[in-house]
From TrEMBL:
UniProt-recorded name of the protein: Probable GTP-binding protein EngB
Coiled-coil residue spans: none
One Pfam family per UniProt: MMR_HSR1
Cofactors demanded by this protein: Mg(2+)
Domain of life: Bacteria
Domain EngB-type G intervals: 22-197
Length: 197
C-alpha cells in the first residue's frame, strides 16, 4: 500500500472527543521513548508529522492522523515513564486505557518494544490486559539499527520464546528502524489486509 496522503487531524485527552469512529483505526502503544511517534513518521514518509523527542514523555495526548482519507493512525502517550509524578502517570494510563477499551473502530494495536530490551514486566502486563480485553495486537521491535542484524535476530527469538511461555499463539512480529527507514512495507501490508477484510 502506498501512503499518498497523511494529515494531522486532532489531539484529545478524552476519547469521546476523538473523530467520528467511522473509519478503521490503528494505534501505536508502548513505553515512553520506544519510538511510537518516529515510527508513524517513517510509515507515512513525513518526518515531522508526529512530534518526537529524545526525552521520554513527549506525546501527551491521543493524536489522530488520517491516511489516504480512508483510515486513521493514532499516536498515544507512552506508559511506564518513571520520571513523571504518579498522578500524571495515572492520568496518562487512564487516557490510554479509556481510549483502547472504548474506541469502537479500533481494529488492531501495534505494541512497540525496543529490540535491545529483554521482556519487561510492564510490557508483558500491558499485553495481558489487551488479551483480556480482546484487543488484537501485533508486536513491532524498534530501533533495529542500534544492534547488528545477528543480535536483532537473537533478541527477537528470545522475546518470542518468552511470549510462547505465556501465549498459545504468538502475535505477528515486525522489526523496524525509523532511523534507517526499515521494516515499513510489512507493517503497511498488515494494515492493508485489515482494511480489505
Ligand atoms: P513518547 O512520545 O515520549 O512516549 O515517545 P515515543 O515512543 O513517541 O518515541 P519517539 O518517536 O519520540 O522517539 C524517542 C527517541 O528515540 C527519539 O530520540 C528518536 O529519534 C529515537 N528513535 C526512534 N526510533 C528510532 C530508531 O528506529 N532508531 C534510532 N536509532 N532511534 C530511534
Ligand atoms: Mg511519542
Amino acid at each position: 500500500m502506498k501512503v499518498q496522503e497523511a494529515r494531522y487531524v486532532m489531539s484529545n485527552s478524552d476519547y469521546l472527543k476523538c473523530p467520528e469512529p467511522d473509519l478503521p483505526e490503528y494505534a501505536f502503544i508502548g513505553r515512553s521513548n520506544v519510538g511510537k511517534s518516529s515510527l508513524i513518521n517513517m510509515l507515512t514518509g513525513k518526518k515531522a508529522l508526529a512530534k518526537t523527542s529524545q526525552q521520554p514523555g513527549k506525546t501527551q495526548l491521543i493524536n489522530h492522523f488520517i491516511i489516504n482519507e480512508t483510515w486513521y493512525l493514532v499516536d498515544l502517550p507512552g506508559y511506564g515513564y518513571a520520571k513523571v509524578s504518579k498522578t500524571e502517570r495515572e492520568k496518562w494510563e487512564k487516557m490510554i486505557n479509556d481510549y483502547l477499551y472504548n474506541r469502537p473502530n479500533l481494529i488492531c494495536t501495534f505494541l512497540l518494544i525496543d529490540v535491545r530490551h529483554s521482556a519487561l514486566a510492564v510490557d508483558l502486563e500491558f499485553m495481558a490486559q489487551l488479551g483480556e480485553a480482546g484487543i488484537p495486537f501485533h508486536i513491532i521491535f524498534t530501533k533495529a539499527d542500534k544492534l547488528k542484524s545477528g543480535q536483532v535476530n537473537t533478541q527477537v527469538e528470545a522475546y518470542k520464546a518468552k511470549l510462547a511461555e505465556i501465549w498459545e499463539e504468538i502475535p505477528p512480529v515486525f522489526v523496524t528502524s525509523a532511523e534507517k527507514n526499515e521494516g515499513r512495507d510489512p507493517v503497511l501490508q498488515a494494515i492493508e489486509a485489515y482494511n480489505r477484510a
